[in-house]
């Protein structure tokens, strides 16, 4: 099989040139910048969004409260019944737990608990 001179110089037999894409180190760096720029911009925009939201007041209706001291043998249920005899103890316990950041229902004698002002003795 005999090759023509055009086939030896990068041309296909149909007269079209075959070319290979070669990317240099500078081209790779430029491509990386083009691809990563929107990702970095989005990350910066998202990271600054919570800071704007945290500037707003958390609760527009602050709760006023007073403190009571847990006596020996008391539970949250007995405290709720003592400070709010006409209210549902479950609701009072929920409010006391939320106000004091309690995980469970156990309290210790001598512990100081914040109670909503409406239930203050």
From TrEMBL:
InterPro entries: LysM, LysM_dom_sf
Protein's name in the database: LysM peptidoglycan-binding domain-containing protein
Stretches assigned to the LysM domain: 66-115
Entries under Gene3D superfamilies matching the protein: LysM domain
